[in-house]
């Protein structure tokens, strides 16, 4: 026993200091463009997946589509020894709730949970949207293949489940197809409310909405860049928290922004051929996505999507006008690009699911002193902690120091006035929690 413990003691620093985990590369290599293509094709073949479309047909409409998605999650679960719990989560939306709800509709999400072994009540979520639409958002009968928007994100979510089902994790992972996005983000609202009733601790949601287009309406063709949208601070922050930012900073350091930085950092470490672009905005200008309802509920949430959109292929009737082909059809999806962005999701799900919880309390001090003092609450499963800091104008955590299994540390010679700081917890396998920005002042 002593020899085993001594060997583990020697191994822990190596794991912490190592920059990569070889399993992450295995995950990247396991993601299949062919399987994503097959799934996107199957989803487009349902004709329309409009939220208000047919639910009885076995071949057309959103009912057939969600039953097929559920069957695919169930096949994945069967292959891994029933490692996924698959179910529908439903909410009734009444006619007239908004102008796009022209008749009563049951908004149905398809949920697959891969339960964590150590922290089963902590969840990291990957989502895609089931529904599609044409030019008229109330037209629920016209063909609406929705190949990129958003069969690509839904197929990516299903593929991530297939790949990650081969691994065991400490935290739980949810793979979900959300409905009602085009009618008012109803699926996200329903699942966020469901999580509240269950008392789930949501680490964050990676919302995938359009991950397959590389030819932008701006004329750019790019199969390496993608965008990560995140809002700066939670809409649920208190007046006290808002006022404190005037004196202590944190205008761009909310929980969603930290999740965005995590994805950015992990992608650069394991997939350096990609160019993740953080966009400091909740979503595209004046538009929305299914991470927003989770933000509204106080959870971290980001949107992962292509860098260059083509608006002639979104929310359009299939037609040709003035030599321009309109419509969200299969031929516009680049499946290798969708594979890359699916892998981005998968490696971040895995990294977070293998990491210990983040410290809940982080205190900072150092007013009129030539040093910065930090204290934090220790967490179960962490073998140490890492302090991050950056220039106040930098978008990313540029400096870090592993400080061991302690609950406080003083950075001598680093003046608190000139930097922003955060703390992450580190697991025995080297995976880290999302960074936590200080939420209390040391007096």
From TrEMBL:
Transmembrane regions: none
Protein location: Secreted
Name the InterPro entries on file. Answer: FN3_dom, FN3_sf, Ig-like_fold, M28_fam, Peptidase_M28
Pfam families (alphabetical):
Peptidase_M28
The record's keywords, sorted A to Z, are: Hydrolase, Metalloprotease, Protease, Secreted
UniProt main location, coarse: secreted
Give residue ranges for domain Peptidase M28: 109-316
Instruction: State the protein's name.
Output: M28 family peptidase
Name the source organism. Maribacter arenosus
